[in-house]
Amino acid sequence: MLLSTYGRALTKAAMPRVESRPQRAAELIATQFDVVLGAAAGCDVVVVTGMLPAAAGALSVAEKLGIRSVSVTFQQLTVPSLDRPPLAYPGRPLPDGVTDSRVLWEFDAESNNTMFGEALNTNRVANGLPPVDDIRDYVVGAEPWVATAPVLDPLNTVVEAVQTGAWILLDERPWSDELIAFLDAAEPPVYVGFGSMPMHESTDVAQVAIEAAGGAGASLDSQEWLG
Question: CB count, 10 Å around CB of 31?
Fold first, then answer.
């Protein structure tokens, strides 16, 4: 099994200009063909997650190698649903005054094709694969996996998604004596997490969270999300 993800370095980079996004997508997709093509050889299945252009590239590699593949998302926001609108891309806001979710998801498909379709198909054709008409539908597929907890996040999609439950890697490392003493000596700590998402317009958000927690008398313990 091979898990293909969006490059970690890109989550730390500055937000690309709207006009440069197709170029960045082309580079990202090309990287999937360069890296995943060799790494996936001999695998039984390719499990793909991450930003749409990266996922499209990795799925294309699996297709080229004749390997089974499955697309996984850790939230439902990018999977079409009639009960919620799609996320808007910078530079391509959702149409004003439109509330019909079906129309908005059609606009989302158009946005993805406009930004990433040419980059994907150029790489696919160069690797002997036919072009795809709809990059979002290609990535989501007919039966994507949604790795969220059904109690906290009931499945609500227009495709036959498989809800796997949240993927949690158990950390069985013992707490240090210093940490235990720290926690025992103060009020219960407050957890603040931002996942892997860059917050380019909020450079001081971590400091604001620290000051708010400290002002409330809560304990503070720092740990990066990558460990």
Answer: 17
Alpha helices in the chain (DSSP H): 8-12, 21-39, 52-65, 101-112, 118-126, 135-140, 177-184, 205-215
The CATH number assigned to the domain with range 2-163 reads 3.40.50.2000
Contact 60, 127 (CB under 8 A): yes
Cα torsion 21, 27, 33, 39 to 10°: value is -100
pTM: 0.76
Asked whether the beta carbons of 169 and 185 are under 8 A apart, the reply is no
Q: What is the pLDDT of residues 92-109, one digit of tens each?
A: 899 999 999 999 999 999
Quick one: which of 118, 98, 116 has its CA closest to 107?
A: 98
The predicted-structure confidence for 32-49, as pLDDT tens digits, reads as follows 999 998 899 899 999 999
Tell me if 91 sits within 8 A of 111, measured CB to CB. no
Question: d(Cα 13, Cα 6) in Å, to the nearest integer?
Answer: 13
**Count of CB atoms within 10 A of residue 124's CB?**
22
Q: For residue 189, what pLDDT band results from cuts at 50, 70 and 90?
A: confident
As a whole number of angstroms, the distance between CA 61 and CA 58 comes to 5
Are the CB atoms for 63 and 121 separated by under 8 Å? Answer: no
For the chain, domain boundaries: 2-163, 170-227
Q: How many CB atoms lie within 10 A of CB 135?
A: 27
